Amino acid sequence: MAATDAQSSLRHAFGNVLVFFILILIGVLAFSIRLFSVIKYESVIHEFDPYFNYRVTQFLSKNGIYDFWNWFDDRTWYPLGRVIGGTVYPGLTLTAGTLWWVLNSLNIPLSVETVCVFTAPIFSAFASWATYLLTKEVKGSGAGLTAALFLAMVPSYISRSVAGSYDNEAVAIFALIFTFYLYIKTLNTGSLFYATLNSIAYFYMVCSWGGYTFIINLIPMHALLCVVTGRYSSRLYIAYAPFVILGTLLASLVPVVGFNAVMTSEHFASFLVFILIHVVALVYYIKGILSPKMFKVAVTLVVSGGLAVCFAMIAVLIAMVASSPTMGWSGRSLSLLDPTYASKYIPIIASVSEHQPPTWPSYFMDINVLAFLVPAGIIACFSPLSDASSFVILYIVTSVYFSGVMVRLMLVLAPAACILSGIALSQAFDVFTRSIKFQLPSLSVDSHVDAGGASSESVGPDDTVKTDKTEDAHKERTSKKSRKKEKEPVEKPPSKSQIKKRLSVLPLETSIIAIILLVLLGAFYVVHSVWAAAEAYSAPSIVLTSHSHDGLHVFDDFREAYAWLSHNTEVDDKVASWWDYGYQTTAMANRTVIVDNNTWNNTHIATVGTAMSSPEKAAWEIFHSLDVKYVLVVFGGLVGYPSDDINKFLWMVRIGGGVFPHIKEPDYLRDGQYRIDSMATPTMLNSLMYKLSYYRFVETDGKAFDRVRRTEIGKKHFKLTHFEEVFTTHHWMVRLYKLKPPKNRIRGKIKKTKSKSTPKTVSKRKGLKRNPF
Amino acid sequence: MAKTSSTTKDAQDLFHAIWSAYSATPTNLKIIDLYVVFAVFTALLQVVYMALVGTFPFNSFLSGVLSCVGTAVLAVCLRIQVNKENKEFKDLAPERAFADFVLCNLVLHLVIMNFLG
Predict the structure, then answer these.
(1) What GO terms in the biological process aspect are recorded for it (chain B) (predicted)?
(2) Res. A4 pLDDT band, cuts 50 70 90
(3) pTM of the predicted model as reported, rounded to 2 decimal places
(4) Which of A330-334, A430-434, A754-758: highest mean pLDDT?
(5) Which pLDDT belongs to residue A348?
(6) Based on C-alpha coordinates, what's the Rg of chain B?
(7) For residue B112, is it within any domain?
(8) What is the interface size between A and B, counted as CB pairs within 8 Å?
(9) Which CATH architecture has domain A555-769?
(10) CB-CB: which of A250, A286, A294 is closest to B111?
(11) B103 to chain A: which residues are within 8 Å by CB?
């Protein structure tokens, strides 16, 4: 007996080593699948927000942590400025900064930019390992490996974590999964040690992303579910109660959250459940020490008194919540609970494309075959239902809802889908391989493989399709199997468990076909993910390429324009543009901007929106009052770049009109249609945005044909009186204009024009005065 | 009248039953209970003080109350883990439970010192 024990422990050790190697390979896969953008383009930071994070990281690595906390940035939001230390989630920048510092102190001289570019792929490897741990806690290591493999290449996550996409989500998804893992681990073991770790992981999550509210609502929901379904245990208490206290304290240490951690409704659920769980714990304790009869008496006595107290407390709470404006919910959370909220009240949230609800194809694009495997995974979680698997079910249900509200929350759904699909696939393989083993007489000796062996094997065939690298792991597996065969006959004879297993045996042909189909499904997933990583999600969006019949075209206009700005303008010049380009202008051109992608001051953005939608003279006055020297517009009409300023123009009108009522959206629409051709309204044709975009456009081809709108523009020949063109990039994608200095005029005339425009300036001043600065 | 007297009698019986059941618990658990009660009492005291004086250094109030509630919660966790009657934690040594408790308290109070302001 001792010999077989030793053998089985040896096999376990062997299995662990195998799992370890598979995990390393999964990490390598997760890292390398995200390098397409570096290989196809170059090692640059992508898009908009990452540029800000990059700039903050640069500041951090140059000036140290204390200066970072106290950093008041006067390069943005001119003339207001922005307190960076108190308004930014510091997790990502601190992580990359630490990484850079460690590498540099090891004498590995990497630039800050390189570290920033590769932070996201590194953390996606960590995230897939965390997924393995989480799924292992739920359904064993076989499911864990499958889930980790799925997560390593789920397109939804790839879209946010390709090399160069240096954004909060890159580290936050790892933190999210790891926090959930530690919660489940605490729940399964009931150890205070893991509870402490759980709170610290939650702290990291709060540091990294605003999505931490998902955790602080999901975990109380799960605790509540456990209590309601009668699954309360003292392990649940240990997992939940210290987490709330420590988590709340740690969250309020992060400056951007601060007292919000106890003051806003997003966090109230956790406190309510905290109170509830104490009541329940007390009830269970008293139930434990009393005889059933006495307990009944106690219940009748307490219920009458306790209910009254409960109602009083709930009433007080509701009163507290109702007394605060917007019921204590912030705009973004409200737009989550009520999907129509944002479009009704906050155009600035609705204007961001990633805040729109997703379309059905985007589910297929982003999680692909996982969408079909998830229901099977849910069923697998119900048999048998444990605390851990009920948590996973709750996670998928809530995240499906949230992903339906906002495209970018698809990212939260992706890990849940991976976990459940991993469980489903692993269980399916488990059933099929087992029934094959029972039916093949030659292999029948191999039948009583323990559950761990069977499920780790189930990953094998799945792995072989993925990469050549896992091929040797597969070979290792077969060698292990053959060795096992030698040992097995000594072991226990066919017993009850075998009979039980025989009940779930499927016909041989069916199971073989099913396995082939499942492998095909996995192969489809791999092909799709690699395609998505290579083609769809790797474009850095500051360098564009297009394939045409005469070869590859590279449009590097953005960096051309920013480089022009940094070389040809004064250091203190202010550049006005729509807020999308604010971060890039400060990071790449190092010039002061009026508004940027951190949309904290609606009035300020509305001022710029108003200027863009006003006629030239009024716009000049607004810009002049803001001390603007240059105006930057992005124009895609020549090369067919669709996300240019003309297409964003209606949002400028809407946001501007929301604060300054003299800008009315219908003035810019002809019969409800947005058009720039000869049918366009005169307000539209006279707006600054139209003029700056199409100035001299007719000189390019003589017809002024706009390739994005696919029409000839309405007004072709016009002159600018208050602006002069200073630079237009090679493909006309970025156009820079300089404000002309005010002309010398007769004094009386100036006074007249000023008195005419006073109401507007006054209203604007008022708007500015309302600001906290 | 008869009904109320029966309920009071019930209540008395219940009280006696609870008391007798409780007095059977080991002394070390009783000490933990006393600690918990003391912590909760301190927290209540702070809340009353806040109601009288005002919330002004809100972080101080918050850290004070949460420190008390936190220690109470951690002590309850310790009590759950070292209770011999709890079958779930049979294989957890009391020394290990206490080490976890100390670690968690250390983290908690480090955070609180940081938050105190």
Answers:
(1) protein N-linked glycosylation
(2) low
(3) 0.83
(4) A430-434
(5) 63
(6) 19
(7) yes
(8) 100
(9) 3-Layer(aba) Sandwich (3.40)
(10) A250
(11) 192-193, 196
